[in-house]
Write a structure and sequence with these properties.
This is STAS/SEC14 domain-containing protein. By secondary structure, the protein is α/β, with parallel strands linked by helices. The protein contains four helices and six strands, in the order βββαβαβαβα. Helix 1 (about 30-50) runs parallel beside helix 2 and helix 2 (about 65-80) crosses helix 3. The chain starts with a strand and ends with a helix.
Length: about 140
């Protein structure tokens, strides 16, 4: 069920799996302000629906943000999701190795500064990401 959709982001909630799938409706550059707005929407609906699994798909964003913009937006998303029921986050990677290295490095830095109570994994395949998100331990 589509919880929210605008020109920046679509949030598709699958209640049976308690999974929120995010995607950007079109392939184009998204600036830092738009990414921040998308993150606020994600945080709002994760809190409102007590969502435990989140799939982030920003592979359609062709804009490479500056390191400061990445850090600011990722910190906002991280802090916003800390006080939620979220347990697992899967992020689909892009084919841009430099961009992915920046993001991976920032995640390590964020986790060192503020250990995340959420499992986070990166995937190149949506099917693998969903499989991991839905896998129950034990």
């Amino acid at each position: 069920m589509i919880l929210y959709k605008d020109h920046i982001i679509e949030l598709d909630y699958q209640p049976a799996q308690d999974l929120l799938v995010t995607c950007q409706p079109s392939i184009r550059p998204y600036d830092a302000r738009e990414v921040r707005s998308a993150f606020i929407s994600i945080i709002t609906f994760v809190k409102e629906y007590n969502i435990t699994r989140l799939l982030l798909d920003f592979t359609r964003n062709t804009q490479d943000l500056s390191e400061t913009e990445y850090k600011t937006n990722m910190a906002q998303l991280t802090v916003g999701l800390l006080q939620t029921s979220l347990q697992k986050v899967a992020r689909l990677t892009t084919s841009d190795a430099i961009r992915e290295q920046k993001i991976a490095s920032m995640l390590v830095n964020i986790n060192e500064a503020l250990p995340l109570p959420v499992e986070v994994q990166m995937f190149s395949s949506k099917a693998d990401a969903v499989r991991w998100l839905l896998h129950k331990e034990g």
